[in-house]
Specification:
The protein is of the alpha+beta class and 647 residues long. The protein contains 16 helices and 32 strands. Helix 3 packs parallel to helix 8, helix 11 packs across helix 12 (415-428) and helix 11 (369-389) packs antiparallel against helix 13 (430-439). Mean pLDDT is 81; it is low at 100-137 and 244-252.
Length: 647
């Protein structure tokens, strides 16, 4: 009669006799099978043993994890006496007495032992199958079962390692598995704290309630020996072990046998794993220590993997946080830096840039939403490439405005210079932006840029639900104020930025202003270029050409302060016009940089537009008051009317 000797993934042995009349024996996880292997990796219908004539065949039923015959994966293969079948963590050893008898008859005249004709090298222990059951056989089978349990534990640890990302949960599972094969009363896995004398328990396990009452504690003598010497420790009688001395904790806890091994991540000790026993009848062996050392190595792999996972998580965080706003060079520098990057908020000196499309708000009111977004995308796409080229950090897109930081998260000696060079290249690139706008039938746009250098709070800012890398502080507000003084094509910078750049700047103009929130006047500088390593310049400023109108045009205007339009309308006359500029006479004196909203009339007093915006760029005369404005938003009807008047 043929039979299987089965050793399950848990190390449990059993036999299954095969009915000679059975043509098919089913094997799988489902309880409806003839041979049930209760293991998660086994398919419900995994394999079949088929009898064809006098021969048996093992057939894999397209299982998820396959069937292995004598260490070779198979789909269908004849099976012979002494063959072993591996299905996931279980092994089935095939014994066919009919084949043994046939072999015996064929060798009868030679009087050769039956054993000599069999392939017993394929069987873990042939004595299990052909020898009468004796005390010695029981011991061998017991050892085999223990070895299978060890293999099962190591297999399970590898399996858990491949599918579990929860480090603490994995350690608890491993400790449970250790207690299945090592007869310990107490065990723990602990990692080192900030110093070598501090151990932080990650897992503590007791054999039973009685063991838990013994109040085990970590022996500092054992801990120091294992961690400092990076060596494993085995003591069959810890209370009398001269290598341990008379450790108070060992005596108090009556520890009879102890095993302890270091946890290593590469060559560094990161903790230890230890099991203890207080029973006189239970002493750990060298084989137990070897097993614990093997498991410790696997835990070290788990710790290393957990470290790599955490590193990958942080790297992913950096890429998600900065990847779209920083150049690849800066992101890679952050990831490769040993100290990484400080993401907590800190005070730091940076150069801040604020750019804005001048007059775009009123322009967008004349466009569809799709056209507005398309223009912004053309603009932002072009500017982003330039900003990343100069290693700026894009803090935020605010509609058609861009807030950029130079000096965070990575500070460089030339932050201010790179910021100015970046601003100049951005202004020069507006010709490309407008070329794309014209091709799509959109109006042209103009950009103003403000720069300021000063201290800010920089880092992760937000709530538990949403956090972003950014900056806050009065210097951010001041940068916005400086930018608000610009007209299209201009770059204004603060005095501190000029000082940090040195003599390589081309300064086209300077003006004293008192921004909101600033108590004393400050000087801001109009930048036309930068030399040194950059050599980027804007076209030279030309004297504004104005052409006198045949007769003055009446205008009314309101002042604008902080985006609020004054209620009082002042009267004036438009005497001269040029390219987006005009000379105006008024009975009221206005400061340079004053923003105005105009109502343009024809000679008959008909309103051409009341959506004409401009900024005072020059005071020609104070008495009578004559000033020049540059229009920041020029509606088509106003542009056409003025062009007609000019010709």
């Amino acid at each position: 009669m043929a039979k299987f000797h089965i050793v399950t993934h848990e190390g449990v042995s059993s036999s299954y006799s095969i009915d000679p009349d059975s043509k098919v024996i089913t094997i799988g996880r489902s309880k409806s099978n003839d041979i049930v292997l209760n293991e998660q990796l086994v398919s419900r219908k995994h394999a079949e043993l088929r009898k064809e004539g006098m021969n048996y065949y093992i057939v894999d039923l397209e299982s998820a994890n396959g069937t292995v015959l004598n260490d070779s994966p198979i789909l269908r293969q004849q099976i012979n006496h002494g063959d072993s079948i591996k299905i996931c963590g279980s092994k089935l050893f095939f014994k066919n007495e009919e084949k043994i008898k046939a072999t015996s008859i064929s060798h009868e005249k030679d009087k050769q032992p039956i054993v000599s004709s069999l392939q017993y090298d394929r069987i873990i222990d042939e004595s299990v199958f052909i020898k009468p059951k004796t005390v010695e056989t029981d011991a061998v089978q017991s050892d085999m079962e223990k070895n299978n349990k060890i293999l099962y534990v190591l297999y399970q640890i590898s399996w858990e390692l491949s599918r579990t990302s929860d480090f603490d949960k994995l350690l608890h599972t491993i400790m449970d598995l250790i207690f299945q094969i090592i007869d310990a009363d107490y065990g723990f896995v602990a990692v080192l704290g900030e110093n070598e004398d501090e151990l932080i328990p990650k897992v503590v396990k007791y054999r039973d309630a009685y063991a838990k009452k013994q109040n085990f504690r970590v022996s500092k003598t054992i801990m120091k020996k294992v961690i400092r010497e990076k060596s494993s420790l085995l003591s069959s009688n810890a209370m009398e072990d001269s290598d341990l001395g008379i450790a108070h904790s060992i005596v108090m806890q009556k520890i009879r046998s102890v095993m302890s091994v270091p946890l290593l991540r590469k060559d560094d000790v990161i903790g230890m794993i230890q099991v203890d026993s207080f029973r006189m009848t239970n002493q750990f062996t060298k084989a137990d220590l070897d097993l614990l050392s093997t498991i410790s190595s696997q835990i070290g792999m788990i710790v290393e993997q957990a470290h790599l996972n955490e590193l990958n998580r942080k790297n992913q965080f950096v890429r998600e946080t900065f990847g779209r706003y920083l150049s690849d060079e800066i992101v890679n520098t952050i990831l490769e830096s040993p100290e990484g990057i400080k993401v907590s908020t800190e005070r730091r000196e940076v150069t801040i840039m604020m750019s804005d499309l001048r007059g775009f708000t009123s322009l967008s009111e004349r466009l569809s939403a799709e056209e507005t977004v398309s223009i912004i995308n053309i603009y932002l796409s072009c500017m982003t490439k330039i900003i990343l080229k100069y290693q700026g950090t894009i803090d935020e897109f605010i509609g058609d405005a861009i807030l950029v930081i130079f000096g965070a998260p990575i500070k460089r000696d030339d932050d201010a210079k790179r910021a100015v060079a970046c601003a100049l290249e951005m202004q020069n690139a507006m010709s490309f932006v407008n070329k794309q706008c014209r091709e799509k039938g959109y109006p042209e746009v103009e950009q103003g840029i403000g720069l300021n250098t000063g201290d800010v709070a920089v880092g992760n800012i937000g709530s538990e639900d949403r956090v972003k890398y950014g900056i806050v502080g009065r210097n951010v507000n001041l940068t916005s104020r400086i930018e608000s003084y610009t007209v299209g094509g201009q770059i204004y910078v603060s005095e501190k930025t000029v000082q940090d750049c040195g003599p390589i700047l081309r300064i086209d103009d300077q003006v004293e202003v008192v921004p909101k929130g600033v108590k004393k006047p400050i000087t801001i500088y109009e930048i036309g270029g930068i030399g040194g390593d950059f050599n980027i310049y804007l076209p030279e400023k030309l004297e504004v050409q104005l052409f006198e109108l045949p007769e003055p045009l009446p205008v009314g205007f309101n002042t604008i302060s902080e985006k609020h339009i004054g209620k009082k309308i002042h009267d004036g006359q438009l005497l001269k016009i040029g390219q987006k500029t005009a000379e105006i006479h008024s009975n009221k004196i206005y400061d340079k940089m004053t923003n105005l909203k105009f109502m343009l009339l024809d000679n008959q007093g008909n309103t051409i537009t009341d959506e004409l915006y401009g900024k005072v760029i020059k005071i020609v005369c104070e008495s009578p008051c004559v000033f020049i404005v540059q229009f920041t938003s020029l509606p088509p009807e106003a542009e056409n009317f003025l062009a007609t008047m000019l010709h």
